[in-house]
Structures are given as C-alpha cells and as structure tokens.
Amino acid sequence: MIVETQTFQYPGRLPLQSGAGLDGFSLAYETYGTLNAARSNALLICHAWSGDAHVAGYHADDTKPGWWDEAVGPGKAFDTDRYFVVCSNVLGGCSGSTGPASPDPATGKPWALSFPIVTIADMVNAQALLADHLGIEQWACVTGGSMGGMQALQWAVAYPGRVRNVIALASTARLSPQTIALNEVPRQAIYADPNWRRGNYYDGNPPNAGLSVARMIGHITFLSDDSMREKFGRRLRNADNYGYTFEAEFEVESYLKYRGDAFTRRFDANAFLYLSKAMDYFDLSYGLPSLAAAFRAVTARFLVVSYTSDWLYPSWQSKELVRALLRNGIDVTYVDIESRYGHDAFLLEVDRLAELTRDFLGRQA
Question: Is the dihedral of CA 223, 43, 66, 113 positive or negative?
C-alpha cells in the first residue's frame, strides 16, 4: 500500500492552554481506507512520543512500512476495509507539523525555544480543526498507545460529542512523579550537549550526542527486564572474554547506541523536549476535585488495555482510569494483558490487540 503524507494548513489563531497562541499552524497527516457517505466510519490513530503520521503502508521511496503497519490495513486490527483511518503528526512535532524547528513567521528563522509550550490538549484542539477540514463531525473511534492514549482520553473529555469509542493502550490519565523524573533525565542529557546552545543550533551542528543519550534512556523504559534478558542476556559482541575496556562490549550496549544514533537522523532535539513537557503537564484531574470529575460529560465507550510488564505506565494507572470511568457509569472494558515486552507491547502484540479491537468495536456494531 503506497501512501502520501498530506498537509493541513490552518490560517487562524489557535489559543493554547498556557495562555499563549499560534497564528496559523500546519499538521502533517495520512489517511487510509475510504470515508463512507455518512462520514461515520472515521477512526483516528494518535501516535506516541517519537511517532509520526506515517502509521502504515509505504511511501514511494520507503524500504520499511509505517510504525504500526501490522495493526493498520485490510483485515487488520484497525481494518481499512471498514474504517477510514487518519493519523496526524502532533503539533510541536518535527515530521511535517508546526514545531520548534519550523520557521517563526515573524523572523523567518526556526522558532527554537521561542516556540510556545504545547500540551496534549493543544494537540487535540489542532486535530479537531483537521477533523473539521476533513468533514468528520464524529470519530467512530480514537485510539493510541502511550502519549497517543493520552490524546485519545483528551479527545473524549474535550469533545464528548465527537467520539463514540476510545481505545487507550499502555497509557495514563496523568503522569506519575516517576514518569516525570524519567522524562527529565533525557532532557538534561540534551541540555548538557554543548551543541544545544539553548535550542539555537539550527545554523550549526545539532546536539546529536545529547539526543542520542536521551533516546537511549527513553528506550530502556520501553522494554522490560524479561525482554532485555531474552533479547540480549549478557552476550558479548565480538569476543568470548571480557576486554576490560570502556568500549561497548555487551550486545545490549551496542544496541542502545545504535538506536540512539539512528534516532538523531530523524528527530529534532527541541521537539523531543517539547513533547516530553507536554506529557509532563498532562493531568486530566488538574484543577478538578478528582479524576472522576474529568469524565462527567463523557459519552464514549472505552477499551482500556494495560500490560503486566509495563513499568513506564504500569497497570495500576490504567486501573485508576477505569475506576474514574466507572464512577461516572461509563461503559468501559478493561484488559490487563500478560506480557514480557514492557511498554512496547502495544506495538508488538498485535494479534491480541486485533482480537480485542474486533470484539470491542463489533459489539457496538
């Protein structure tokens, strides 16, 4: 399946949760399948921290498909024979949507740190304008994992009449102190890179060393002890005995370095900072007496999925979300999947996800 990335350009002002605003923005997005005559079969997939709009299929020059190709397509978990699937790169990102690397209209130079802080709510408000552009009044389903699940929850709270179903995977209604801490350490790695220059690096060398370390730290949180032991163990790269040096001798060390270096070729360091702060600020109970109060106006049905080995967004956070939904009498299905793959399980265990998705959405149909 060959797909093309499209661009939605909004010329008006977008008020932001911080009190600032953007005078015009762009969102990169891709679509799959066909929108029916009633415009009732649209399904929005929201990507995680380092994702983008290219969720499935191939671009003309691709050697690898989109990041969730196993889950999106004809007959798959998100069936494009049945649904018109939309995925957009978030506001604040670096894959075609307006973010810190984009030119500031006032100066013509990259925004860098003068770009306003954006939140999950701001991302969803921008997506709502994209939905208007596409003529979609209501989503049949909004789904995503990790940061994508946060967006799905925000959609249900901010636009209750525009969402029929929500599928939140390996996600949370508010970040825990531990997760905020795990976001701060990678940011410090970027700050410490002398090439970062307080974000003003676009006319020189980018802070790739800091960004690589940031990604390595983040990637560890996506895995589990079991998955790392199974994949790497204590195997050495190129020898049978220890070399007693500071070179990367263990396979797990080499793997992390490879993932970090590869990440710097496709992601902007400032965008990494902005998206991590957006997650830190995410708290559906902010300014309210309880988390349950956030869902009082919600009308969508929910499928909440957690994974037993996910220590980044552990199962107790999904259970907290489910209790808040139940206190409002909301139709919610909760599944805690036994898994060894850690946080990344929502991307990897697609067969189980397909079964759950078909059952959940089919029950309504």
Answer: negative
